[in-house]
Design goal:
Number of helices: 13
Structural class: alpha+beta
Order of helices and strands: HEEEEEEEEHEHHHHHHHHHHH
Number of strands: 9
Protein name: DUF4271 domain-containing protein
Keywords: Membrane, Transmembrane, Transmembrane helix
Radius of gyration: 34 Å
Organism: Hymenobacter lapidarius
Strand order of the largest sheet: 3-8-5-6
Number of domains: 2
Largest sheet: 4 strands, antiparallel
Shape: elongated
Strand content: 5-15%
InterPro entries: DUF4271
Distance between the termini: 104 Å
């Protein structure tokens, strides 16, 4: 049956409307919006964050809305094998931090160019870290921060104005730990002095120490005794404390890192490690001297040489706690000066021990003898050069 004209027209309109509605709804479902995951911050952004103290949050810094701050933050992704160039103008005191660890501090007002991946602290794993820029007496020049390549940044600036950044680490951390260990060291020396007062008097007799006679009491006494063992451990503890305080991290040596993996922040563990290594070195030197004396045919000098080495080592251990105490007291005000002074103290201890041993051996046999001089170089000078390279000049 044929439909009337107006009904047919109405039916066509209804069908058209239904088709149009289906066409509109279906694409809307297919193109449903999904937020993309945030991209990894692999380069420096122009957006900076500031700390909201009330909410304890990092919020986006809006110039003209927020008050200028001393510190600004930004999330960055740092990989050790991927360059992260950074160029900026700095006033004296401007510092960069990665996860609250100081990695750079500007000493002069100039433009610096650096590779952030080279400043990543060893204890921080590669990945996303919080970069902080801090100006203690003002606000950093955020507009000068850019991620241009280091070479182009330096080439585009006058040579007198471009400065190559160098990593700088904070002063000794854990002052209470160092002072506590110093207190233990002082009490230990006091206990040894009270218990073994006659023995200590024989070791540190000034007339024998600076005399030239060959009948000195200490040089004819046995080198291995309970008193000497205790004093060697205390000397090793003093030396280990000083090494740890001035950040002379022996674990930078690949061979040592294979056997010992002690983090830099574990102060007590590092002190114990260094104390053990130094104690082993002091007693292992007796075996080394015996071997070299057998090769050179000078076995008669072994006991005299080792006892003098032991006496000089134990005497120097009395001054190391004083050097460490001065270092901890002055490091905050004169970090560079006291670091050099502490390294000089270590160098004096090592060189002075060799000179003292050579002087004592000269009283028993002339060092003008080429054979004896070669023996002294093999047993004292060569180990001295190795220790100076590892402990002083490397750092």
């Amino acid at each position: 049956m044929a439909l009337p004209g107006f009904l047919r027209t109405s039916w066509l309109l209804v069908c058209s409307l239904l088709l149009a509605m289906v066409g509109l709804v279906a694409p809307a479902r297919a193109s449903e919006y999904k937020q993309l995951p945030p991209s990894s911050p692999s380069a420096l952004s122009e957006d900076w964050l500031i700390h909201d103290a009330k909410r304890n949050l990092l919020v986006l810094y809006l110039q003209g809305y927020h008050q200028p701050a001393h510190a600004y933050y930004q999330w960055v992704r740092v990989e050790r094998d991927q360059s992260f160039p950074l160029s900026f103008a700095a006033q004296p005191g401007l510092s960069l931090f990665l996860d609250n660890q100081l990695v750079f501090s500007a000493r002069t007002a100039t433009t610096y160019s650096l590779d952030l991946s080279q400043l990543l602290p060893a204890q921080l794993a590669p990945g996303t870290h919080l970069l902080a820029v801090w100006q203690p007496d003002g606000e950093p020049a955020l507009a000068s921060f850019s991620g241009v390549s280091v070479s182009s940044a330096v080439a585009g600036l006058p040579r007198a104005q471009a400065g190559q950044a160098q990593p700088r680490f904070p002063g000794p951390q854990g002052q209470n730990v160092y002072l506590g260990l110093l207190l233990v060291l002082g009490l230990s020396y006091g206990a040894v002095r009270t218990t073994y007062q006659p023995g200590l008097a024989r070791i540190f007799q000034l007339d024998e120490l600076f005399g030239t006679g060959s009948d000195q009491v200490f040089l004819v006494k046995p080198a291995f005794s309970l008193l000497n063992l205790l004093l060697v451990v205390l000397f090793a503890l003093s030396f280990g404390l000083l090494l740890t305080a001035i950040h002379t991290d022996l674990q930078n040596l690949p061979l040592l890192r294979r056997f010992f993996n002690v983090p830099e922040t574990a102060i007590v563990a590092r002190v114990v490690l260094y104390t053990g290594l130094i104690t082993v070195f002091v007693f292992a030197k007796y075996l080394y001297i015996n071997i070299m004396a057998y090769i050179f045919g000078l076995q008669g000098l072994v006991n005299i040489q080792y006892r003098e080495f032991l006496r000089t080592t134990l005497l120097s251990g009395l001054f190391l706690p004083v050097a460490l105490l001065l270092y901890l007291s002055l490091n905050a005000s004169y970090p560079r000066t006291v670091a050099w002074a502490a390294s000089a103290v270590i160098g004096i201890v090592l060189v002075g021990t060799v000179l003292r041993v050579a002087r004592t051996l000269h009283t028993y046999a002339s060092l003008l003898n080429l054979h004896l001089f070669a023996y002294l170089c093999a047993t004292e000078v060569l180990p001295l050069l190795v220790l100076l390279k590892l402990i002083v000049f490397t750092y």
